[in-house]
Structures are given as structure tokens and as C-alpha cells.
């Protein structure tokens, strides 16, 4: 009998997969959603993270409906946004853009928001928004140049990855660390458990 609840991750992010694995959850499938992530005019960072997480969820839901393979599975999506005040930082693809991000983050505090969206097997949608405050030390020219040369910033919200070399820039962090990487673990587990996905029950029975 296979009555184990299944979970599909609406993401192509290897970091989100690794974070779920850390919680003992192995998704049945990955359904990345290709959506337009451009902020709306005047959109606040927390609203953007929430909106994009929901859009990824709905796009993945539409995709899975093309086949009936993942019917009845939980579907989870997330989106991470980095902001200095109301200013939303890009996910840089070129060094110049990444350099702008580093100059903005140097010696200052910023906020990282992750929106998470869950669709239950019955089709109900539940969302959460998690905020972490991060302060970078003041970065020297050498540090910025060395980091730009690493290319670790490419495609990362705010132009850095805390789980890599940029971890050496962090002098203060208030809130969830995993939230900065891309999926807040405590809140995600609470959301799933609250919707009867048996997270803890799996810990004694690794996949
Ligand atoms: C701030 C920060 C961001 N990031 C990354 C995580 C995300 O990949 C990216 C934020 O972009 P997202 O759009 O949230 O995620 P994604 O495009 O990688 O994956 P998908 O949409 O398929 O779920 O920034 C880090 O890896 N470490 C960090 O410290």
C-alpha cells in the first residue's frame, strides 16, 4: 500500500531541495515554474515575495494538471527577495549589477523576505512570509572585487549567497538563517505539519 503523502516542490532551486532534505523531506518531483519576476510599480518587497511564491505555485499546479501523475500531492513554492528599505535588489546576471548590490549592502542592514505557498491535496492554499534582517560589514574594494570574481552572486537575490563566500560578510543576523538561503525551515515545517503532512513521522523512517 502506498498511502504516504507526497510532496512536489514547485522550484528548480538546488538550495531549496537541500533545505527540504535537511528537514527529512524528499519531494516526489520538481516542477520549476518560469514566471515573470518583475516587481510591479511601487510594489513592496514583502508583497513581491508573497505574490511570486503564489504565482509559482499556481503555474506548477497548472503544469501538473497536464498529467494526473501528481494529483493529490502537496505542492510547495517559495520566492526570496532581498531589499534595502523599500528598494528591491535584483538577481544580477552581470558583474556591474552585482557590484551595485555589494555597494548598497556594504556596512548596512538589509532584509531578506521569503514567501512560501502551499497547496494541500484538497486544493486549499496557505501562505507565509518570513523576514530576516542581515547586516554586512563594510566591504573593502579588495573584498568586493574578489567576490565579483567568484561569480557566486550570479542569479542570487541581492547578488550574494550567504551559504558561500558571502557568509564572511555577515556580522549580524536576526531571524531565520535558512530563510536567507531560500526556505525558512521552522516555518515551512510548521506550515506542512499544520496541514497534516507528516514531517516528524518520517524522521524515524528515512527515505
Ligand atoms: C540572499 C540569498 C539568495 N540566494 C538565492 C536563492 C534563490 O535561488 C535566489 C532567489 O531567487 P528565487 O526566485 O527565490 O528562486 P530561484 O529562481 O533560484 O528558484 P525557483 O524560482 O525555481 O524556486 O537567490 C541564495 O542562494 N543565498 C542567499 O544568501
Automatic annotation (TrEMBL):
It catalyses: UTP + H2O = UMP + diphosphate + H(+); dTTP + H2O = dTMP + diphosphate + H(+). The record marks 15, 80, 163 as: Important for substrate specificity. Its main location: cytoplasm. Its EC number is 3.6.1.9. Pfam families: Maf. Keywords: Cytoplasm, Hydrolase, Nucleotide metabolism. Its cofactor is a divalent metal cation. It is an enzyme of class 3 (hydrolase). The keyword Cytoplasm applies. It is found in: Cytoplasm. InterPro entries: ITPase-like_fam (IPR029001), Maf-like (IPR003697). The active site is at 79 (proton acceptor). It comes from the Bacteria. Nucleoside triphosphate pyrophosphatase that hydrolyzes dTTP and UTP. May have a dual role in cell division arrest and in preventing the incorporation of modified nucleotides into cellular nucleic acids. NCBIfam families: maf, PRK01441.1. Belongs to the Maf family. YhdE subfamily. This is dTTP/UTP pyrophosphatase. It comes from Ancylobacter radicis.
Amino acid at each position: 500500500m502506498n498511502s504516504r503523502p507526497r510532496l512536489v516542490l514547485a522550484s528548480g532551486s538546488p538550495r531549496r531541495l537541500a533545505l527540504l532534505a535537511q528537514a527529512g523531506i524528499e519531494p516526489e518531483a520538481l516542477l520549476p515554474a518560469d514566471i515573470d519576476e518583475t516587481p510591479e510599480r511601487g510594489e513592496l518587497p514583502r508583497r513581491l515575495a508573497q505574490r511570486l511564491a503564489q504565482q509559482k505555485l499556481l503555474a506548477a499546479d497548472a503544469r501538473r494538471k497536464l498529467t494526473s501523475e501528481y494529483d493529490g500531492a502537496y505542492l510547495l513554492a517559495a520566492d526570496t527577495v532581498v531589499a534595502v528599505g523599500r528598494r528591491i535588489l535584483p538577481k544580477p546576471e552581470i558583474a556591474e549589477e552585482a557590484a551595485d548590490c555589494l555597494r548598497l549592502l556594504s556596512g548596512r542592514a538589509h532584509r531578506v523576505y521569503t514567501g512560501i505557498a502551499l497547496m494541500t491535496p484538497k486544493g486549499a492554499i496557505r501562505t507565509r512570509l518570513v523576514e530576516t534582517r542581515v547586516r554586512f560589514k563594510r566591504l573593502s574594494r579588495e573584498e568586493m572585487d574578489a567576490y565579483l570574481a567568484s561569480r557566486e552572486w550570479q542569479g542570487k537575490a541581492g547578488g550574494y549567497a550567504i551559504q558561500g563566500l558571502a557568509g564572511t560578510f555577515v556580522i549580524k543576523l536576526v531571524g531565520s538563517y535558512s530563510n536567507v538561503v531560500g526556505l525558512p525551515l521552522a516555518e515551512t515545517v510548521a506550515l506542512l505539519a499544520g496541514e497534516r503532512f507528516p514531517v516528524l513521522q518520517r524522521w524515524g523512517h528515512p527515505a
